[in-house]
C-alpha cells in the first residue's frame, strides 16, 4: 500500500506555507515569508500577518500542488498547524484546513507547531524515539525528550528571550542588518571573543532553563561605555562585541545541553541522539560546540537542513502523518490555540518572544 498523500498548512507566525508529503518524501514545500510586510515595524504585526496568511494560503497550496505534480483530488489528508502562535494566522490556516477537508471528504488533523519542529529529525534523519531535541530559533528555545508524536518531556527552556531574538536585538544595537543571526555571526568571525566578556546567564542555577535578556542589556552597556570613552565604535569594536556576545550564547547553550544530555541518558535510550532545530542551529560556532558535546557523551548529532528546520509546512504534514498513523484526527470543532505546551505537565515558562508567547 502506498503512503497517504498529505497536504500540510502552516500560518502560525510570519511564514505562509503549504507542502505535500508522501511517507518521508517531501514532494513540495512552499514557504512565503512576510519580512517585507513587517520590516517597517521592527517586529511581526499580528494583524498584518493574519491578513497576509488569509490572502496567500490558497496561492501557496496551488503552488505546492503544482510543484509536486499532483492535483487536489489526490490528497488523502490535511494537516494544519492549530497552535501555538499568533491567533489570527492560526485561525486562517485552521479555517482553510477545515474547508479543504470538508470539500475533499478527507481526514483533518490539527498539529502543534512545536511538535512539527520536534518531529522533523524523524523525517530528515529517521531518528528513533526517544531522542533529545534542542529547539533554538527567534521564537523558541527549549530542550525536549521526544518520545512519540504526542509524548514530550520538556527539560527546560528560556525564561525570557529566545536566542535568535537576542541575536536580532544585538544586531539592532550595533547597526547591523536583520535577521541579526547571520550578520552577528559574520562580524564575530572578524573579532576576538576575549576582548569583551559577557555574563553566562543562569549557569549558577541547576537545571536546563536559560535566559538571554540580560545578555542584551550587558551588550548595550558595553557598547555605550565604548562610545562614551572613544566617542564612537570602530569596526573592530563592533566585531569584538559580536564575538563576545556569540561566545556567551554558545557557552550557555553548550553547558545546558550537557545537563539535558545527563538527564536524557539516565533513561538509557536505545540509540542516543541529539537533534538541533531552528534558525540559530545555522550558527557554525554554536553548532560546532553542540556537536563537540555530543561526541564527548557518545550521542549522534543531527541538524535538519535549514529549509526544514525553519518554519515550513512539510514538518506539519509529517507530524500529521504520524498522528494519523496513531489514529488521531479532528472534526470541525478543531480550534486554534494561541498557547499549546507540548509537555502539559511542565510548569509554564514565563517568557514572551518577539514571535508571541512561548509554549
Ligand atoms: O527558525 P527561524 O527561521 O524562525 C523562528 O524564529 O521561528 O529562526 C530565525 C532566527 C532569527 O532570530 C535569526 O536571527 C536566527 O534564527 N538565526 C541565527 C542565524 N541564522 C538565523 N542566529 C545565529 N546565527 C545564525 N547564523
Ligand atoms: Zn517555528
What descriptive keywords fit this protein?
359 residues, alpha/beta, Nucleotidyltransferase, domain 5, five-stranded mixed β-sheet, globular, disordered C terminus, binds 5'-O-[(R)-(carboxyoxy)(hydroxy)phosphoryl]adenosine, binds zinc ion
Write the layout of secondary structure elements.
Layout (H helix, E strand, L loop, with lengths): L4 E6 L4 E8 L2 E9 L1 H4 L7 H23 L8 E7 L3 H18 L3 E5 H13 L5 E6 L4 E8 L2 E7 L5 H11 L6 H10 L23 H18 L4 H31 L7 E5 L6 H14 L2 E3 L3 H4 L4 H12 L26 E2 L2 E2 L2
Parallel strand pairs: 1-4, 4-5, 6-9, 9-10
Antiparallel strand pairs: 1-2, 2-3, 6-7, 7-8, 11-12
Helix pairs in contact: 2-3, 4-11, 5-6, 5-7, 5-8, 6-8, 7-8, 8-9
The chain binds 5'-O-[(R)-(carboxyoxy)(hydroxy)phosphoryl]adenosine (KG4) and zinc ion.
Zinc ion binds next to helix 4.
Largest sheet: 5 strands, mixed
Q: Give the spatial strand order of the biggest sheet.
A: 3-2-1-4-5
Which ions, cofactors or small ligands are bound in this entry?
5'-O-[(R)-(carboxyoxy)(hydroxy)phosphoryl]adenosine, zinc ion
SS content category: alpha/beta
Sum up the overall morphology in one term.
globular
Q: How many whole angstroms does the radius of gyration measure?
A: 21 Å
- Counted beta strands: 12
What portion of residues belong to β-strands? 15-25%
CATH architecture annotation name of the largest domain: 2-Layer Sandwich
Tally the helices: what do you get? 11
Oligomer: single chain
Fourth-level CATH superfamily of the largest domain: ATPase, nucleotide binding domain
CATH class of the largest domain: Alpha Beta
Estimated helix fraction: 40-55%
Unreliable stretches (pLDDT < 50, length at least 5) are 352-359
| Rounded mean pLDDT score | 92
